[in-house]
Amino acid sequence: MIQLFSNEQMRSADTHTIRNFGISSEKLMKRAGTAIADEAQRVLEEKDLKSVLVVCGTGNNAGDGYVCATELLRRGIQCSVYQLEGRFSQDLEREWTRYTGAFASKIQSQGDIIIDCIFGTGLSRPVEGTFAQAVQDINSCGAYVISADIPSGISGDSGLVLGCAVRADLTVTIQEYKAGQFLADGPEYCGRIVRRDIGIKSNIIRDTVSLYEPQDIKAFFPPRRRNSHKGTYGTACLVVGSDKYLGAAALATAGALRSGCGYTKVVTTKAVREAIAGQLPQAIYMDDIDSKATSILVGCGCGVSKDLYAIICSLLATYTGTLIIDADGLNTLAEYGIAPLPEASCQVVLTPHIKEFSRISGKAVEDILANPVQAAKALAGMYGCTVLLKSSSSIITDGTRAAINGTGNSALSKGGSGDMLAGFIAGSVARGLNAYDACVASSYIMGKAAEIASEHWTEYCVTSKDVEMAIPQAIQSL
User: Fold this and answer.
1) Which of 2, 324, 347, 415 has its CA 20 to 30 A from that of 115?
2) What's the sign of the alpha-carbon dihedral 430, 433, 434, 435?
3) For residue range 339-393, what is the model confidence (pLDDT) as tens digits?
4) Do residues 212 and 408 lie in contact, with contact meaning Cβ atoms separated by under 8 Å?
5) Assign residue 450 a region: left if phi > 0, alpha if psi is -120 to 50, beta otherwise?
6) How do residues 210-252 score in pLDDT, each as one tens digit?
7) Could you give the CA distance from residue 91 to residue 95 in angstroms, rounded to a whole number?
8) How far is Cα 73 from Cα 55, in angstroms, rounded to an integer?
């Protein structure tokens, strides 16, 4: 499991290391710059390239760049520096005075490799002026681009592009992975990420964000007992669909059926039942909710109504299992009131996308995107529930723990993906996972299935049915 750090946590770790382990900021900068030089030399040798241009800003990230340039020159590699104007940090000033190599007057075509050392992870304002021009020149010059720690212009906490950003082929992250490398625009701009340990000692023992790796997810799919039966793997009851939205019920049901639970019970309208029972005969179609089910999913394709609100309120007050509220269930709570949530007798899972999260939390979309991890944790803590905030990189939190899902692609950016995910979560809880682990495992598998399906059908052409059919391969890949 990979731990992702925020800007504040990395600053704290730097200070902790300097104060308590006798490692100076100068020595840390030397290690960071050398690590970047190592990766640049490796790329040069692999791709049979010759020269390097280091583009430096005015902060400590640029100091790493000067160390890198000095080290490459020491190794006999052709290297120069392009320096942007501005007030230098103290550490940068030191490394700038030590540098004895050449300076470039422009960025275009000055190196086979460009090393981006303009901004680090602490950037919090839009990139403007000559800095924006430098970013644009890097992106248009055709060189192989390596970014130091994070591509300049990407927020280290949110992964958002702040005005404009460098598109890197390789990002050398120093000491710890950063949340912004895996959120929003981060994955698209970082390229391949390599982590280099430079000896920073973290004093952070909690509140980091986890990124689950395949071996972590594998633990959620243990070998099934031969001596078992339907009852061994629990019951998921789905309250889904309406005469207007038949497909949502079918997709949620398909997701639950692929999850490994013992029973999938579906409470829906007669029209939906008649439409989907033939293609999904493995499910049990009912008129009433099974209040003894291990998990209950409510909301997919139900439409917003007072009747649905009454069902949700009743379940919150009396049900004792795990209640997953998705789609129109969330919109219904936003419409008629979320007051019943804190008094819930059951474990609650909320699975909003960004706009649904905005409706239910009252927060503006731009505020959520600026710090999605903290926004999700705050909502989960306020209502004592598990939140799965769906996006290009979904966030799972129970108010204390938090994880980012690193699988998936734009094939999931189509109607129906969330319904299938919700059904898979319900089934995963039914077969024995707790709410948090079920959301982590389900998000990973759905994302992996989309990746597998896209290898055959492309991200353009993949449908939710294709994703469903790839779920077994996604699990088998573990």
Assistant:
1) 2
2) negative
3) 999 999 999 999 999 999 999 999 999 999 999 999 999 999 999 999 999 999 9
4) no
5) alpha
6) 999 999 999 999 999 999 999 999 999 999 999 999 999 999 9
7) 7
8) 15
- pTM to 2 decimal places: 0.93
* Sheet with 295-298, edge to edge strand ranges: 177-178, 2-5, 209-211, 402-404, 395-397, 386-389, 347-350, 322-325, 295-298, 235-239, 263-267, 284-286
How far is CA 351 from each of CA 182, 236, 314, 365, 474, rounded to the nearest angstrom? Answer: 20, 16, 19, 16, 22
DSSP code string of 177-206? EEGGGTSTTHHHHH-EEEEE---------S
Cβ atoms of 156 and 180 closer than 8 Å? yes
Q: Is 237 helix (H, G, I), strand (E, B) or coil?
A: strand
| b/e code 128-157 from CB counts within 10 Å (16+ = b) | eeebeebbebbbebebbbbbbbbbbbbbbb
Burial class (CB in 10 A: 0-12, 13-18, 19+), 319: buried
Q: How far is CA 152 from the centre of its chain?
A: 19
Half-sphere exposure of 122 (CA within 13 A, CB side): 11
Instruction: List, as one string, the DSSP characters of 324-358.
Output: EE-THHHHHHHHH-STTGGG-SSEEEE--BHHHHH
Return d(Cα 101, Cα 193) in angstroms, integer: 28
DSSP state of 108: T
By three-state DSSP, how is residue 136 classified?
helix
For residues 282 and 294, give the distance between their C-alpha atoms in angstroms, rounded to a whole number.
18
User: Which amino acid type is present at position 46?
Assistant: E
> What number of residues does the chain have?
478
User: Token pair 């243990």 is at which residue?
Assistant: 222
Where do we find the tokens 């009396």?
A: 318
Three-class SS state of 54: strand
Q: Are 168 and 135 in contact (CB under 8 A)?
A: no
Residue 75 to residue 68: CA distance in whole angstroms: 11
Distance CA 151, CA 127 (A): 12
- Output the CA–CA distances (angstroms, integers) from residue 317 to 235, 336, 406, in the order listed: 20, 16, 35
